[in-house]
Write a structure and sequence with these properties.
- 33% of the residues lie in helices and 24% in strands.
- It has 7 helices and 7 strands.
- The protein binds S-adenosylmethionine.
- S-adenosylmethionine binds next to helix 1 and strand 2.
């Protein structure tokens, strides 16, 4: 992966202190993550892409007979995912690569499913990253997003878009309007669930409608 100025702070955070705190931060999400992933209708031998796979929490929630590509810009997070897979992977077919999800090194229409867990609030340019996911997903393929995103809300949306100008360089960008991220892409939302009573965390199952 080429040197990329926009990702310097993120790589620094995810290669140093975040991996220590991450397991604690993820504890409350354990059941919710599984519930969100169960919205996908997996079939044997499905190809699954996980952009920003991090330390691999999603891997343990997937069926054993799918083929997974996980990509991330943090060597340390990927190293933890690889170590967990070696210990508990039970023969799952998983490839982990250092790659910028804004420029996925895969041909169009390659994958049946994509899992975007806590990723679109973290990546520098969520629109670009989402467009890349849509490109590599097959027509009728499923894209699962679960994150602390809001549906477009006029006043939070305006405030957040200003905050995002600064925060996109850090490890996480608080809240980004979901509708803005998927705007103009050939996808439909087929299912939505709330991860908490206020809907701060939400899961969206989308389907790609046409080939690009
Ligand atoms: C909050 S973590 C989520 C990890 C995992 N998906 C989970 O649910 O636990 C976000 C991950 O996205 C990665 N990331 C950020 N920008 C990225 C990019 N442009 N390409 C690939 N990964 C990226 C970070 O390194 C980090 O591991």
């Amino acid at each position: 992966m080429d040197f990329d100025f926009k990702n310097i702070l993120k790589q620094l955070s995810f290669n140093t202190f975040i991996p220590f705190f991450y397991p604690i931060m993820m504890m409350p999400l354990r059941n919710w993550r599984r519930q969100a992933i169960q919205m996908c209708s997996f079939k044997p031998a499905d190809r699954v892409i996980i952009p920003g796979v991090g330390s691999g929490y999603d891997l343990a929630c997937l069926p054993h007979d799918v083929v997974v590509d996980g990509v991330d810009i943090s060597e340390v997070m990927l190293g933890i995912a690889a170590a967990k897979h070696r210990l508990h992977g039970d023969g799952q077919d998983i490839r982990l690569s250092i790659m910028d999800a804004e420029n996925l090194d895969f041909p169009a229409n390659t994958f049946d499913k994509a899992i975007l867990g806590l990723f679109l609030t973290c990546v520098y340019d969520p629109q670009k990253a989402f467009a890349e996911v849509v490109r590599v997903i097959k027509p009728n393929g499923e894209i699962l997003i679960y994150d602390h995103l809001l549906r477009t809300n006029k006043w939070t949306g305006t405030i957040m878009s200003h905050m995002d100008t600064v925060m996109k360089y850090n490890f996480c960008s608080v809240i980004r309007p979901f509708d803005d991220i998927i705007k103009g892409q050939p996808v439909v939302v087929v299912k939505e669930i709330k991860g908490d009573p206020l809907g701060f965390i939400r899961g969206f199952l989308l389907q790609k409608t046409t080939s690009l």
